[in-house]
């Protein structure tokens, strides 16, 4: 044992000497002894020095009996005191021990052994108490550090204890709170009470290893705090009933508030995500969908459960998927990209405007891609609407459009004339759009394309049983166009009887269906179009003069493309946009001034239709990228020309095109020219080319000239 510092408080010198002797007799222990003869001097010693133990005589000059002990304790209550008394007074002995004395020894009865044992016990007990106190302090500190309070509850007596931190959580001072089950229950939020009590009962019945509950408690200030209450039964009676429970209490209001804020923000985000009309996709780094909104589900034509985990490759055409892959790889490197592209989805061609941004985690690492896509297919259609016609710079076309606009505002029947492919149908649609009938339907019928025996029924409709095969009543184009506009293209092809029926309609706005007797009134505007010389047709008796005069009141001539080459750049631009959508190209190809020049110089015998066909073919050959002269097949080394009667071409060597390509272009030129000379008549064109009608059809198919030529 280390040196033990003893304060001897004794006024009797003999007793003091005896005591010192007795202490010296104790082997294995070294003492340092300080002697005080009065309470006052003893208190002074205690204030100046530290001692391990005090031996105290209860009869001193300045204090007597238990008072002596209490005076000593006032200075430092922690030092163990062994009372040495000459009085064999049991009451004082008991009183001293109750007040905290370690031992009570009678002066004439103790010896060195008894004394040493008493002092050793006193010191040991004090040290054990100190250690326990320290452990308790550490425990309290740990709980306070973790913002935890503790509680202890006697189930039988319903008396509880809450430590300071626990009381503070509820806004009380320690001395203000005396917890019991009932008081606690009254503080629990009514909404939480059933679940808390159920959890407590389950644990007390032994169904759970521990009791744990998150609930709201009312504080002293009548506010709600969220707490996490944990506990366990720690004592049972002999019959196995729980007697005591103890545990911790923690304030989790901040956590709960943060969780609630996150929940609300997630809810807001969800609402936007679900209601958005734009398609929203979230993909991880390997392109797998991790979330899609309902609009995206509709767009891809599958529920989210069938989309999540798949990639865009499972839904898109391989070419479209390749485009997305390229853009996504840039976004994964951190770029935000806005782009327009077309894609084939469920058999339809859709133009999308995409915004793609990288999804990042807290450390800034890109973990995926957020895509917001908007369907702009219709917007693109508007871009290529015929209204942009008004921007054509050529005087000829401006005059045509001016006239068309004036006519559009009236109900007058219009006659559109112009070479095949010059855009008569296109102009008729323009008139319709600018007329008061714009909100109603526009129909177009090519009189040359209907079999003569069905033409009347197509135009005017028929009654049930009007002819073999007329199983039901059918409304004709005129009736369908009620309130709107009907274009009769190639009107020169109409038979004379039908011309006369049409004239009647123009005069009366009435007609009868084939096989019917009842007159039907229809308010449809008629536009007639032809690429024939109607005056000549009238002179040769193939067209009714009265109908011609009736139609010729408002005649609008569409100039051939070769006479308005200034319009070519704008036309090319419009046609490329249109073709780009139709051909599902992601980007619009670049056109050099050199190409535009070549296109302007070219003699467009097939007009806008031919220009469209040339561009379409060039796009196919160029794979949708930059167009070259070779793609157009209109190189300078080969010039076709026609003076109306004669057709010629010149060529220079070495050629840029192969013999096959030159032959292809030459055939195309010849067929177009023949059709032009024959006024679009295939029979006439075939005769001019000295081939059969079927061979002509075959060539037109092969050369990509047939679809609009019907
Ligand atoms: N201004 C234009 N802008 C864009 N495309 C046009 C324009 N004019 C004509 N086209 C296109 O050229 C082709 C021929 O046009 P359209 O059918 O109107 O000619 P048309 O004179 O009626 O021909 P046809 O007499 O052979 O019936 C169509 O594909 C049409 O879309």
UniProtKB/TrEMBL annotation:
InterPro entries in UniProt: AAA+_ATPase, AAA_lid_NorR, CheY-like_superfamily, Homeodomain-like_sf, HTH_Fis, P-loop_NTPase, PAC, PAS
Domain PAC: 211-264, 325-388
Keywords tagged on the record: ATP-binding, Nucleotide-binding, Phosphoprotein, Transcription, Transcription regulation
CDD domains: AAA, PAS, REC
UniProt key word Cytoplasm: no
Domain Response regulatory: 5-122
Domain (Sigma-54 factor interaction) ranges: 394-620
PROSITE patterns per record: PAC, PAS, RESPONSE_REGULATORY, SIGMA54_INTERACT_1, SIGMA54_INTERACT_4
Superkingdom assignment: Bacteria
Any one GO biological process: phosphorelay signal transduction system
GO molecular function, one term: ATP binding
Coiled coil: none
Alphabetical list of SMART domains matching this protein: AAA, PAC, PAS, REC
Domain PAS: 163-207, 265-335
PTM-bearing positions, type 4-aspartylphosphate: 57
Entry protein name: PAS domain S-box
């Amino acid at each position: 044992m280390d040196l033990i510092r003893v304060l001897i408080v004794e006024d009797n010198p003999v007793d003091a000497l005896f005591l010192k002797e007795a202490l010296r007799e104790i082997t294995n222990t070294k003492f340092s002894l300080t002697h005080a003869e009065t309470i006052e001097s003893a208190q002074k010693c205690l204030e100046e020095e530290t001692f391990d133990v005090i031996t105290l005589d209860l009869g001193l000059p300045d204090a007597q009996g238990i008072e002596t002990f209490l005076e000593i304790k006032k200075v430092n209550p922690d030092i163990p005191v062994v009372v040495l008394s000459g009085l064999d007074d049991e009451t004082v002995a008991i009183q001293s021990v109750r007040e905290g004395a370690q031992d009570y020894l009678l002066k004439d009865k103790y010896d060195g052994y008894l004394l040493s044992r008493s002092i050793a016990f006193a010191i040991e007990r004090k040290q054990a108490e100190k250690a326990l106190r320290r452990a308790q302090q550490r425990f309290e500190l740990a709980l306070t550090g973790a913002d935890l309070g503790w509680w202890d509850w006697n189930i039988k007596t319903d008396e509880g204890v809450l430590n300071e931190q626990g009381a503070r959580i509820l806004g009380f001072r320690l001395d203000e709170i005396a917890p019991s089950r009932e008081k606690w229950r009254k503080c629990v939020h009514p909404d939480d009470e059933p679940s808390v009590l159920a959890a407590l009962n389950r644990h007390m019945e032994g169904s759970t290893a521990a009791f744990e509950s998150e609930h709201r408690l009312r504080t002293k200030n009548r506010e709600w705090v969220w707490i996490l209450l944990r506990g366990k039964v720690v004592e049972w009676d002999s019959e196995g009933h729980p007697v005591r429970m103890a545990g911790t209490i923690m304030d989790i209001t901040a956590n709960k508030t943060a969780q609630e804020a996150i929940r609300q923000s997630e809810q807001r985000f969800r609402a936007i995500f679900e209601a958005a009309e734009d398609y929203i996709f979230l993909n991880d780094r390997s392109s797998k969908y991790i979330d899609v909104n309902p609009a995206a589900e509709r767009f891809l034509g599958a529920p989210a459960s069938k989309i999540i985990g798949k990639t865009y490759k499972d839904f898109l055409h391989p070419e479209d998927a390749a485009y997305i892959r390229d853009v996504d790889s840039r976004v994964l490197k951190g770029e935000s990209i806005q782009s327009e592209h077309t894609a084939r989805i469920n058999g339809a061609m859709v133009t999308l405007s995409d915004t793609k941004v990288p999804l990042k985690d807290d450390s800034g690492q890109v973990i995926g891609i957020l895509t917001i896509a908007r369907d702009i297919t219709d917007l693109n259609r508007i871009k290529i609407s015929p209204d942009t016609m008004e921007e054509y710079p050529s005087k000829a076309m401006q005059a045509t459009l001016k006239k068309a606009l004036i006519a559009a505002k009236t109900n007058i029947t219009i006659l559109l004339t112009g070479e095949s492919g010059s855009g008569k149908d296109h102009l008729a649609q323009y008139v319709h759009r600018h007329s008061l009938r714009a909100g109603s339907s526009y129909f177009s019928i090519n009189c040359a394309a209907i079999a003569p025996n069905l033409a009347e029924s197509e135009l005017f409709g028929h009654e049930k049983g009007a002819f073999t095969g007329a199983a039901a009543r059918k409304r004709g184009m005129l009736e369908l166009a009620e309130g709107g506009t009907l274009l009769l293209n190639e009107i020169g092809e109409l038979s004379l009887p039908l011309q006369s029926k049409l004239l009647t309609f123009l005069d009366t706005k009435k007609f009868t269906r084939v096989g019917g007797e009842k007159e039907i009134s229809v308010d449809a505007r008629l536009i007639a179009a032809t690429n024939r010389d109607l005056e000549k047709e009238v002179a040769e008796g193939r067209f009714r003069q009265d109908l011609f005069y009736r139609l010729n009141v408002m005649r609008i001539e569409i100039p051939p493309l070769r006479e308005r080459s200034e319009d070519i750049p704008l036309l090319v631009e419009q046609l490329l946009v249109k073709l780009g959508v139709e051909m599902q190209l992601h980007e619009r190809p670049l056109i050099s001034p050199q190409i535009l020049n070549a296109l302007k110089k070219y003699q467009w015998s097939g007009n806008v239709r031919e220009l469209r066909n040339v561009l379409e073919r060039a796009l196919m050959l160029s794979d949708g990228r930059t167009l070259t002269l070779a793609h157009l097949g209109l190189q300078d080394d080969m010039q076709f020309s026609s003076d109306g009667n004669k057709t010629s071409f010149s060529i220079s060597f070495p050629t840029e095109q192969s013999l096959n390509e030159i032959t292809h272009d030459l055939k195309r030129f010849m067929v177009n020219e023949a059709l032009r000379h024959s006024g679009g008549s295939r029979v006439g064109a075939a005769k001019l080319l000295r081939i059969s009608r079927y061979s002509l059809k075959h060539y037109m198919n092969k050369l990509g000239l047939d679809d609009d030529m019907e």
